[in-house]
Prior knowledge:
The complex is a heterodimer. By secondary structure, chain A is α/β, with parallel strands linked by helices. Chain A is about 55% helix and about 10% strand. Chain A has 36 helices and eleven strands. Chain A has a five-stranded mixed beta sheet with strand order 1-2-7-3-6, with helices on both faces. Chain A has a three-stranded antiparallel beta sheet with strand order 5-4-8. In chain A, helix 21 (about 535-550) packs antiparallel against helix 22 (about 555-565), helix 24 (about 590-605) packs antiparallel against helix 25 (about 615-635) and helix 25 packs parallel to helix 27 (about 665-680). In chain B, about 45% of the residues lie in helices and about 10% in strands. Chain B has helices at about 15-20, 30-35, 35-45, 55-65, 85-95, 110-120, 145-150, 160-170, 185, 190-195, 230-235, 250-265, 275-290, 310-325, 335-345, 350-365, 370-380; strands at about 65-70, 75, 100-105, 125-130, 140-145, 160, 170-175, 195-200, 205-210, 215-220, 235-240. The longest helix of chain B is centred in the C-terminal third of the chain and has 18 residues, at about 250-265. In chain B, about 45% of the residues are buried. Residues about 1-20 of chain B have low confidence and may be disordered. The interface of A and B includes residues 381, 409 and 419 of A.
Amino acid sequence: MDSTVTMESTTTTDLAVTTDLTVTTNLTVTTDLTATGPVEPLVQPAAPRVEVLGIRHHGPGSARSVARALDELGPDLVIIEGPPELDALIPYAADPELVPPVAGLVYAVDTPRRAAFYPMAVFSPEWVALQWALAHGVDVRFADLPAVHLLAQDHDESKKESGPDDREGGEEAAGEGSLPREPVAGVAQHRPDPITQLATVAGYDDPERWWEDAVEHRRTSSLEHFAQLREAMAAVRDPLPTDDPAPPVPPPAAREALDRDDDGRREASMRKIIRAELRAGRSRIAFVCGAFHAPALHPDTFPPVSRDNALLTKLPKVKVAATWAPWSAARLSYVSGYGAGVRSPGWYRHLFLTPEPEVVSSWFVRVARALRAADLDASTASAVEAARLAEALAAIRGRPSVGLSELTDAAQTVLTEGSELPLQLIDKTMIIGEELGRVPDSVPMVPLARDLAAQQRSLRLKVSATSTVIELDLRRESQLARSVLLHRLRLLGVPWGSPTDVGTTTGTFKEAWELQWTPALAVGLIEASLYGTTVHAAASARAGEQASGAADLAALGVLIERCLLADLPDGLRAVVAALGERVARRHDTLGLLQTVEPLARTCRYGDVRGVDVVEVGEVLRTVVVRVGAGLRAACASLDDAGAGAMRAAVEGADRGVGLLDRSELNTPWREALRAVAGDDGVHGAVAGRASRLLLDAGLIDQQLAADRLSRRLSLGAPAVPAAAWLDGFLTGDALLLIYGEDLLGIIDEWLAAAPEETFEDLLPLIRRTFSRYHSAERRQIGRHLRDLSRGTRPTAETEDEFDLARAGPAVAAVARLLGFPVSDLRGSDLPDDGPGLEVGPRE
Amino acid sequence: MTDPQPETKPEADPGTSLDAGPADVLRAAAEDVYADELVALSAGDDRPRPPHWRLSPWAVTTYLLGGTLADGTVVSAKYLGSRRLMEIAVASLATDRALLLLGVPGTAKTWVSEHLAAAISGSSTLVVQGTAGTPEESLRYGWNYARLLADGPSRAAMVPSPVMRAMQTGRLVRIEELTRIPADVQDALITILSEKTLPIPELDDQVLARQGFNVIATANNRDKGVNDLSSALKRRFNTLVLPLPDSVAEEVEIVRTRVAALGASLQLPAGSEALAEIERVVTVFRELRSGLTTDQRTTIKSPSSTLSTAEAISVMTNGISLAAHFGDGVIRANDVAAGLVGAVIKDPVQDRLVWQEYLETVVKDRREWSDLYRACRDLG
């Protein structure tokens, strides 16, 4: 199964997907309440009563119905669909600091990546039931297959992995009809989607819309309504062996059997809790669950206890923990790829929180304000007209009340003059919404999350669901601290911030970060908490672990830099130690070369950040010496691709060595370069580059370079390797060719003498080399070539073209800046001893 | 008029519809052509109707989009496209908001407005044709100068405009090409739309609109800025943008049904196997319009012409007529080529280059189109 694979192989970045799948569970349809009324003989007035409230997860209409039904019933116990592990979280729900959308997060303690979210928005029926119970002082608990088993199943039987998820998908389908599902949930389609069936019977082609019209938009329903819904659901579930864990007909596919088992197990778990509560003497129980489960949870339909128990024995177990995690509106919507979300959490929220007569008008007032905020005209009169149009549209379409499509159509027609574009503004801010839930400090959190929260507060970094870009000036201490925190989180696999383009500045003291908090990061944090209890400690430990597991030296080089940025001296020490050890054992010269630059940068800038660089310097020296010894051998017999990589590594290492400019590094490095440059057997790209680096450093003179060029390009040498050498040699500054004495002539002769077939091979290579120069440089080279062909030697430089009088002021200004006595210069060069900045008459 | 939509323009002036009997009118008004459907809809319509509406909003929507009624009457589809758009149009009129239909030429704006008026008010003949020379009298009222001189100003000396008559009778009035009407004349509509009254200062009197009165305006958003609506006026309209057809199949269907209907009224021989030709013309139009071939592999230039569905319809009608009168009655590439070239090349220099390029790079390479290629090449 796909999902299995995904889950097994996910790195933390993929977590979102994993968790999303699980989330679906909550989304299901609301079930109905079993109206036990007619069933129960009124003989015993105190006969226990169980009402099943079938809901759609995140359905505002369901939520409202649930509240009304609870008022009507006055239960002494409320049970909510969800693993019993969530019971521990119930007390915190009373805290006003806990602001939805939030999600109950259950994770396996040993492998936090196995986690399930149970998101609740303010309009979720589960949340409403929970709040009702807390406000009325009524006992409340969760009932479902315990997460100890749910998450363990994932763990033990990889096959089974997608079982719960699919189940969610199926349940999802039950509740939300046409909602798109995650690919893994495809299995759910084996089962006829009950909502689709009901919608078809009602004459709707869109099940989602049927649910909206029949349930969500009705504001009058209560217990009776739930009972009807349960009956309807029982009718569509009928062909399925819902309550029967051992279906009489053998399932056509093993897959299907799995699904049913899970349905069966989950419902058996729910029934078990109902039975226990009934035994405990509860008289009125309200059970809030997805509509699909409703028929199975009515006591009249209960199968024998033994059958349920048989289903629930010998399930694998794993240790789990639960906490509240902030959730976001965008996560609730399926625009974000969350397989079982609701399309319009912002609209549902509005629908739920606004008193009925004002729903439409206040919605358009909000739309108009949002448009005005974006500098678009939207008058109050237009908002009124839009509201009227929306009502008329709903009437024409025969809908019981105005829905989102009417609102959108009316807004487009009246407020935006038929244009769709401005409405995209509303889409994000209003229809989906930008809320991010809040969780109080009192909620049990892993220590790492607590430490992060404290740092976020002290550094005044706001946690927000919308993406914001901040710019940090690293010269200021508080901003440096923010940068360090963000780098550490990245190292921990909690990519809250990602570096973005700073803009035009080339300074190294600026950093720009894009911050966006997503609920999946909460799982990342829990996973990272295995490494330590504070961000600092965990990041150090993680760096150390990555260092010992690093595949090659280059990865270690990268890690060094990340430790440096994240200000982790401990982590850095571990990485350097690992590197030192590897260096002693490895003979991979290329890998060693690639570590030179990061190491050198650490040495150069590390002490600025308070890193002890002596040890790093030691390792660097070892690396450079070893590179010096191995470079020439490593450069032998390279193919083109290998030579390209080697050339880049040599350039990087040269930059690194140049950065420190210490003789103990320079000497071995330059010796190595010399050896490579002088060896005609080395691949042209590397040898040419080495020659150029030496020439630029002034270690060989131009004559020697010209000799080598001539030798490499002579007739006896094959042309294509020669072109590679030329490319290596010429990359960089064009001035070498423009002002270099013979170089251009040599190249010209070589190219002109090449036989035609060879010339055709050479042309693209040469062209690529020269295309890297600026057009002005190319023009100059072209002019020199023309002079060459005419036999006139290019004059050294055309000094006579300078207009000394015009240049005078600039020269004077530069001289002043450099501290020369300016008046002398002016006096000698210019006849006019005027105020320097004026252009004197021409000589 | 630059709007190349001849088949949808109401040629008939209000006068002819008064004696709408003769069978030889070139183009009868919508309420006459579809009188049977309207009667059947009205008979079976038990839903609430807004005041002075002949049909309920639901029935109007059915009239436009087609369907089968309970008594078995088949209502033909007048508008092939999104149901949503028609529902919005009808709902707008039901809320007594004026409706502005926007779209590039040839997107059935006039066609929709005519049928809306026919279905709702039972007559589509109250029309103001907007031009650069439309005077204020066309929107308000004029005077019968002989009576004015003889008796002085009085209601009897007034010549009411279609708008005024619509107000008095509680019907829909259509204003074609609203953006072509000079801005100062447009402003005469503001009071009418917002207060639903037409003041007559000369008589110290006013005309109060009866229930059922409303305005449907059409405007072309391709040559925007001719006389752009003032924001005060814009605000009084619900704006509905009619799009070009989404898919080739949809567009072919529109062209086919319209060509068949027109062919009948022009007494062209029916039954020509034109579907393949229609598809080809529609494909050419869509490709040139979008600047991309249907296989998404070649970018081409777009000509300055609009290349609307309405033009495709006239190209086809033209072709059928050529085939019928000068050929053997079967429409071939030769017959459509002239119309096609004429529709594409509106600017003799630029568009000709675009067309030549299209011919050489796209048409030539399609083997089954070689007849079309030759026919177009022969035309130059």
